[in-house]
Amino acid sequence: MDGPRRLRSCPRDTQGSDWSGCTLQQFMDCPYNLANNRQVRMLADLSLVGCYNMSTVPEKKRAQLLLESAKKNLRDMAFFGLTEYQRKTQFLFERTFRLRFIRPFMQYNSTRAAGVDLDNATVQRIEELNELDMELYDYAKDLFQQRYQYTRQQERRQQRIKNHMQQSHQGLGLGVGLWPSRSRQGSVSTLEYGEGEREEREEGEEGGRTEEAGSRLPTEDYMNQIINR
User: Which of 1, 17, 101, 161 is the most buried (most CB within 10 A)?
Assistant: First the structure.
């Protein structure tokens, strides 16, 4: 082929509007099949490699540039979900955009593809053709789990602080001294909370407001020192 190696259509595309009637082997053998590593191309910045001009960047470097670009763009997204984790996807979506669905997401693990019987050689060939997509998925799954765990921890920490504040105000309203004297601040928390919870409180920066309750309440700064200890 003379000139730059630009995007070409598979022979099948010139014969019909789709790939119906095409065998899996024919589908895999087409060198211009855009189904291969499609997810990476959809997420990556194609201008980094001259879009579909295959002569601008060596093939190996082109693949690495596209994969790294796809990973970066995925990280920069405020939210993304995974079909395999419907409940976690719903949880992250609701916390990210501060809204609630009226029904929980349903998890369906049976697909049409699961019923296709393929020999090991064919599976290996498919994996080779979609090597970049498979690496991107592994990266996405790890990033997704990190975001989920972080969001859960943040939510639990905020709930503990909220509960602690409510209990403290209730105790003070009844005249029960839940707050230690300043001389005892250094001994607080290990007995009242587990060590892991104490460490989490040290990372938090939640504050609270005080109100008059018939007796002198601790100042806001003092309360913050206890909570964030």
Answer: 161
The answer to whether the CB of 90 falls within 8 A of the CB of 101 is yes
pTM for this predicted structure? 0.66
The gap between the terminal CA atoms of the chain, to the nearest Å, is 70
pLDDT tens by residue, 91-146: 999 999 999 999 999 988 877 777 788 999 999 999 999 999 999 999 999 999 99
Q: Quick one: DSSP state of residue 103?
A: S
> What is the phi/psi pair of residue 124, to 5°?
-65, -40
Give Cα 225 to chain centroid, integer Å.
Answer: 33
Rounded distance between C-alpha atoms, residue 25 and residue 12, angstroms: 13
* Residue 136 CA from chain centroid, whole number: 13
Cα–Cα separations (whole angstroms), residue 40 to 27, 54, 132, 140: 19, 16, 7, 11
169-184 per-position pLDDT tens digit: 776 665 544 444 444 4
Rounded Cα–Cα distance for residues 180 and 183 (Å): 8
User: Are 43 and 109 within 8 A, CB to CB?
Assistant: no
Question: Are residues 66 and 41 in contact, defined by beta-carbon separation less than 8 angstroms?
Answer: yes
Give 10's contacts (C-beta < 8 A, 6+ positions apart).
Answer: 30, 32, 33
